[in-house]
């Protein structure tokens, strides 16, 4: 087992895909010569040339529109939107074209494309460069949404996403690019839609995804010193999401906290709570709690952003409430 940074793990998956399949192409703003805004695509232009790794103009609508057309024409495009906030400019191509093509052409056409984009705070990028908008895409039939929490999953999930015949939004938390973690080069891709138990426990379940999984694990470590046993479920994928795994965990612990970095209102957590209140009602010994960001734009100032983002103490407070 080697130790690899999150950004490098993504780079390795892209490298493998480009090497294995000549139909895979990569393009976006600064992904070629500069190696990406966060250095994730470094070295790929030199290895594969500008016919397969290409910089684009600053036009998210053109980038995603071109990707949809390329995918429908037999290629496998991987495109990068520099900050998730800018997907708003490309929503027509993703929501009305990529997501609908298979349905509108009676299953005769697929759109095998991956849209990579970083979300989240922690780097003081302010309200227009820090939003977590994954719930937008999870709401759209025809799209899949994947959010890894560690380097190994980032690599294995991206490989699965590239191989998938449908459009996938692959979300990377920008504060995690330098995160180190164990990595096994022989590991297989992860099935999209399958969660896993990142930490076993008996007293309460915390369900999360992306960078917030690490916040949940920090809270679980602190609670363990107080003899509170926390189970942490990493969704990995939020569309489709593994409600069977969440229900199984709830059946063991009978208490549930849902955590994500996105604003709490109308988010992924709301969907999980609604489903577990329905299919898991008989397993609940306490009301379900949600933990997320408040309903406001992300602050610029480091001191304010640190209060805005949900942290381990917020999770601990929620766990104490469901255990009370």
Describe this structure as you would to a colleague:
- Helix content is 36%, strand content 20%.
- The longest helix is centred in the first third of the chain and has 15 residues, at 6-20.
- The protein contains 12 helices and 14 strands.
- The protein is globular, with a radius of gyration of 19 Å.
- By secondary structure, it is α/β, with parallel strands linked by helices.
- The chain folds into 2 domains: 2-183, 3-Layer(aba) Sandwich (Rossmann fold), CATH 3.40.50; 196-323, 3-Layer(aba) Sandwich (Rossmann fold), CATH 3.40.50.
- The strands form 3 sheets. It has a 7-stranded mixed sheet, with helices on both faces.
- Helix 7 links the parallel strand 6 and strand 7 (168-173).
List keywords for this structure.
324 residues, alpha/beta, Rossmann fold, 2 domains, seven-stranded mixed beta sheet, 14 strands, 36% helix
